[in-house]
Amino acid sequence: MQMTDIIAKKRDGGELTREEIGYFITGYTRGDIPDYQASALLMAIVWRGMTRRETLDLTLAMMHSGETLDLSSITGVKADKHSTGGVGDKTSLALLPMVAAQGVRMAKMSGRGLGHTGGTIDKLESFPGFSCALTDEAFLSQVERIGLAIAGQTADLDPADKKLYALRDVTGTVSSIPLIVSSIMSKKLAAGADVIVLDVKCGDGAFMKTEEDARTLAAEMVEIGKMAGRRTVACITGMDQPLGRAVGNALEVKEAIALLSGSFGGDLLELCLTLGSCILTESGAAANDADAREKLERGIADGSALAKLAELVEAQGGDRRAVYDTSLLPSAPVTLEVPSPAGGYVSGIAAEHSGLVSMHLGGGRATKDSVIDLSVGFVLNKKTGDTVAPGESLATIHAHDEKSAAEAAASLSGCFSFSDTKPETPGIIRTIIR
Ligand code: URA
Question: Per its UniProt record, what NCBIfam families does this chain match (predicted)?
């Protein structure tokens, strides 16, 4: 088999065989196929697309490019959740304990943040001592013991995706449905869960800007997951403004704790209840969505979901006291209110730009090697649809010095738009694809 023939076949609109796809993935992962040939094939895939059969074969070849986690030694149904990423997305911090408190085992591999979106691992590291560097054995035994573990993805899991994603990033080949599907689903399949729930975000702060594109991506991921034998559900959810109110690592942890304590609701709670219901029903832990919601709400009311977060924090080396006393979490020395330049209704909050405000404060990574400040970010005091008077606070900035606080306040103010009439505010949940 020759790589040049495979490239030419896809360039001319042909359908690649499983063997050709396997040859490419094995050869590229091993370093036998050079970047320039892989780039040419990726660009041909961007232009010509792939059939569902090709996408499945690509996904499975990538999944098997490294180690796969075998969760079969753990009793019960094992579930995993994935978000395509957004601003203020602390969903996993609240959702995973909520679900695990209902007896469904959550085995989650997570990533770090890059650019305007944050990562669950960075957020969890706000707990002093917390570590996501678990061996496979420690990961499995923790899921068995407390029903929940969150680990950083190891280098051995899906090495093909690591190489390919880095190459796609610099060759203009990220935006392709089969390439995105295979990248996300190969990692999820390799991580071994029986139930996979996908939060596919759409809007200004998301990877997929339109609901239609998010729906296409979600439908394809659900099909590939099912063809690979996993119970897979996708929720299309809005990312037109930051999720919840807090953006920034420790600030988001505090918000997740408030939700688990029953003192925070809104779009974040609705999202957690919807994703949680999908997980409980698909896992057989609830008879239907209404039953699942009731169980999840009871877990918040009786403190068991918050206690599960404390168990997780302790199991992974963190200070569990911080779950019940958030003054033990990092906090920034400077706070500054952002006065509203106008009155009326807030008609929008540019999500991507507001994510960049948090990044420039030091809360996110401009490059993979940036060191982040866990304490900084902002908390929105107004969200889309709220009324506001001129000069009233739109948000509170948390910064490490006065200068960066003032710069962030000016930038964040520019993310808000206003109107005289109440704007339409679509709910956070757009569609569920089962
Ligand atoms: N996230 C991934 O993991 N892979 C992609 O290709 C895009 C988003």
Answer: PRK05820.1, PRK06078.1, Y_phosphoryl
